[in-house]
Specification:
With about 475 residues, this protein is α/β, with parallel strands linked by helices. The chain is built from 16 helices and 17 strands. It starts with a strand and ends with a helix. The model has no long low-confidence stretch (mean pLDDT about 95). The structure holds ligand NAX and potassium ion. The site of potassium ion has 11 residues, from β4 and β5. In the N-terminal section; belongs to the NnrE/AIBP family. Belongs to the NnrD/CARKD family.
């Protein structure tokens, strides 16, 4: 559990102070973890460049440099600016005593090392970087070698995932004490590389409560009794599939069956199809706004819904129902333009899950997608608060936020899932897990997790992210759910 905990920045800073008061030298531990990381990967005559900044991130790097020098590695130290923190000044003194002479800058023909250790800035980066610092980072990024970022890539805000104009593009990040969410989303997703946690053996009593969790996946509510039948696994009513977008509703319906929903009604606004020949288990019907809703445990509205009058009527109807509800795609866009329906949503007695991508979230918050991506956690929290519901903010590093619960961050999935229809599949998965009795927060997290795992598995098997269709994803999701049961 501890390994998956996400702590807020203020909590991490409080821990730092408390550890210092108790005489725990976390910097030495971070340095040892860094040196161990290197020893496990590089032979002892490798050339390493250690770039150290003025603060404690630089201190971690300097102490690691000392350990690596003592272990026989050939180490160059780049210190563009004098060390300012007490601990990093002490580290520098120890290096000088050991014969190390830091460089203030690198020659333009500096020979490429096997590894760059980036200890320029960590969680203390607090203002825009100067042109001089940007030039240093640009020069380091141009080195064609392994790049290990300590705590976070320098230039990246490890909480929001925002990169400054220059930012180290790491192949690996060794992060200390706890995971930081911004390593996984926005610019972090492309700058942090492979992420590992070094917990630094911090005593349990010092650990703050988790603000969130990484990759929480509890599929145990889906376990089945031998004496069960289709009625035991819930009935779902999915509404969407307007003219030209019928496929979206079918994809969601098929995914719901693949995720174990007992029965799935698909009401399509197009109405031209009465059976899905590739999935005859689905119960298809024309979504006449005047029809009574089929008996169901869960509703989902959005895949291929469109924004015409019947679509608006259906949104009004499902919001008025007392069933758990998933809203996606055009259901979210319609909601964004109707304040009355937003009030109805906030007052719903049953749980509602919104599954926006950043552009849909931006419409709901009346801001830009860049604003949403600029601080994903804050955007998801605003939506959850405003509409009193669960929000699954899609994109690299999907976030699941429900008021009063630790937020969840899912790191599975990648560009293989950036394809048409994958959002519809996700809607079907979530709705199916709700229909089987899971609560909204956990169902959203598990659905995002297995969907992402399916994408990762494809990418690994295919050797790249291209070519995974939404249709082919559902069966992989079934397999992952069964594995996680
Ligand atoms: N949180 C903890 O308990 C631990 C922290 N450790 C390390 O300490 C780091 C945090 O150390 P600090 O708080 O000293 O922060 P940093 O070392 O990340 O940066 C702070 C320093 O950079 C300067 N600075 C900030 N923004 C700048 C900018 N744009 N341009 C130029 N200078 C800038 C500040 O004036 C300060 O000197 C962590 O990231 C981690 O690497 C580790 O030693 C392990 C324990
Ligand atoms: K760093």
């Amino acid at each position: 559990m501890r390994e998956n905990a996400l702590w807020s920045l203020p909590a991490l800073r409080r821990l730092e102070t408390e550890a210092e008061l108790q005489g725990l030298d976390l910097m030495q531990r971070a340095a040892r973890a860094t040196a161990d990381w290197v020893r496990q990967r590089l032979h002892s005559d490798a050339r390493i460049l250690v770039a150290a900044g003025p603060g404690n991130n630089g201190g971690d790097a300097l102490y690691a440099a000392l350990l690596l020098m003592q272990a026989g590695y050939s180490v160059d130290i780049l210190l563009p600016q004098a060390a300012t923190s007490r601990q990093s000044q002490a580290a520098l003194q120890a290096i000088r005593q050991a014969g190390g002479i830091p460089l203030q800058q690198l020659a333009s023909d500096y020979p490429t090392p096997e590894l760059l250790i980036d200890g320029l800035f960590g969680i203390g980066l607090s203002r825009p970087l100067s042109a001089d610092w940007a030039a240093v980072m640009t020069q380091l990024n141009a080195l064609d070698c392994l790049k290990l970022a300590l705590d976070c890539p320098s230039g990246l805000d490890p909480y929001t995932g925002q990169a400054q104009q220059a930012c180290i593009r790491a192949s690996h990040t060794l992060t200390f004490l706890c995971h930081k969410p911004g390593l996984y989303y926005a610019a972090g997703a492309d700058h942090a590389g492979q992420i590992e946690l070094a917990g630094l053996d911090c005593p349990q009593a010092l650990l703050p409560p988790a603000e969130g969790y990484l990759n929480r996946q509890d599929a145990s509510p889906l376990q089945r009794r031998r004496d069960s039948h289709k009625g035991s696994h819930g009935t779902l009513c999915l509404i969407g599939g307007n003219r030209g977008m019928l496929g979206a509703a079918l994809l969601a319906g098929r995914a719901a069956l693949a995720a174990g929903a007992g029965k799935v009604h698909v009401l399509t606004l197009d109405g031209s199809l009465t059976v899905d020949p590739l999935c005859p288990e689905l119960m298809l019907q024309y979504a006449d706004p005047a029809m009574p809703l089929p008996a169901a445990d869960v509703l989902a509205l959005g895949p291929g819904l469109g924004q015409d009058k019947p679509a608006r009527q259906w949104l009004k109807r499902v919001l008025a129902s007392t069933l758990p509800l998933v809203l996606d795609a055009d259901a979210l866009n319609l909601l964004a333009s109707n304040a009355d329906l937003q009030h109805t949503l906030a007052r719903r007695p049953a749980s509602t899950i919104l599954t926006p991508h950043p552009a849909e979230a931006a419409r709901l918050l009346a801001c830009s997608s860049a604003d949403v991506q600029g601080d994903r956690l804050s955007a998801a929290r605003q939506l959850a608060e405003r509409f009193q519901c669960t929000v699954l903010l899609k994109g690299a590093g999907s976030l699941i936020v429900t008021v009063g619960q630790p937020y969840l961050l899912n790191t599975s999935g990648g560009p293989a899932l950036a394809a048409a229809g994958q959002g519809d599949v996700l809607t079907g998965l979530i709705a199916a897990l709700l229909a089987q009795g899971m609560e909204a927060h956990a169902a959203s997290s598990l659905a995002a997790r297995v969907h992402g795992l399916a994408g990762d598995e494809y990418q690994q098997q295919a050797g790249g992210p291209i070519g995974l269709t939404a249709s082919a994803t559902s069966q992989r999701c079934s397999a992952w759910l069964n594995r996680l049961l």
